[in-house]
Amino acid sequence: MTTVLLHLLNLNVHFHPRLHLLPLLYQNFKTKSGCFRNQRLAKAHTVIQTFKSKILVDENSKKFTKTWRGTEVCNYKGFTCDIRPDVNETAVASVDFNGAKFAGPNGYLPLDGFIDKLDDLAIFHANSNNFTGTIPYEVSKIKYLYELDLSNNQLSGDFPMNVLKATNLTFLDLRFNSIKGLVPQQVFNLDLDVLFINNNNFEQRLPENLGDTPVLYLTFANNKFTGPIPTSIGKAPNLLEVLFLNNKLTGCLPYEIGNLSQATVFDVGSNKLTGPIPYSFGCLKKIELLNLAGNEFYGEVPETVCQLKNLQNLSLSYNYFTQVGPTCRDLIMKKKLDVKNNCILDLPFQRSEAECTAFFSRKLYCDRKDSFKWVPCMKGGYNKYKYSSPESTTSSSSPSVRTYSTLIPHRTKTKQR
Questions:
Q1: What is the dihedral of CA 180, 186, 191, 196, to 10 degrees?
Q2: Whole-angstrom distance between the N-terminal and C-terminal Cα of the chain?
Q3: Main subcellular localization, coarse class (predicted)?
Q4: 24: in domain
Q5: In this structure, is residue 167 part of a structural domain?
Q6: Within this chain, do residues 76 and 136 fall inside the same structural domain, yes or no?
Q7: Distance CA 155, CA 138 (A)
Q8: Phi and psi dihedrals of 33, rounded to 5?
């Protein structure tokens, strides 16, 4: 089963696995607001109270803000403290406002003056609120920040370039906002495990250096990305799940996708891609879900793809495929393969003959045509096409896919460590 690393979604995170066991310091820093354990907590108190004054709506049943009283900042709902390792002092290390639905004047809240002033943060999760504007520049200076989730807010403007300077960042979730323009190439050089930017207004060709990314989970779905999938994608062997669905991608699939030996999910549904399925897809030994539906793919469906032992869902509907072999037909019977609305004449629910004839009367072209039969995981390199019996497939339960939960605004619940 494929799952996003649960520790990335777990909010009970510490700077260091042992330091949180150290006793908290006694109150020893006095301000006009009271007595605090140290100056860091005194500063955090000021920042939080200023932020609280801007919140006009706290609809969530948890009623966060009613707990933000007194000097015990570490007991405030939504905040977690830990020992900052470089100074050995208690500090506000984590913010969890997921689903709080905070709102300020006119329903919106700026991030400025809050996240950028909490410079001891390691985690900031604020899914499903009403934060507006852009991410403050000072976020790039937060030394220990490694998880940033601002999904399902009202952020706008261009991609926040300042995030690129947060060098310890491993988790970046900006989905369901109104961020537009270009995704900078530098984002693929960050040492990220998770990059979720689906459901925004990005409009560009996919960057050529996409394959430089070390990410495990990548969602670019529901934007306006154009052009072909870069061949460099084959250099990203860490990819487990990748969602490109519902964009405006064109061109043919590069055989290099077959190099994604760890991938369990690959989804390019609802684009404008064309060409045959590269035989290299038979090298996707761990693939569970493969969605190519809603494009203009054509030709035969390689038996080597249907023979993939972990495959549970293969969606090829609404294309122009013309041939499926016995293993693929067995998957159709098992409801693991959907080929409706193609040009496979002896199967039901296909396109009309006139529609298929019109499509194949067009000039169909792919660069590197010889590469479509190249199979990088096969000795000799080129596929020697052979049908095998349906018994070569195995049956197992349906895959549990985590990245698809990013296609709805709220975050799904996960088990705690």
A1: 20
A2: 18
A3: secreted
A4: no
A5: yes
A6: yes
A7: 17
A8: -85, -10
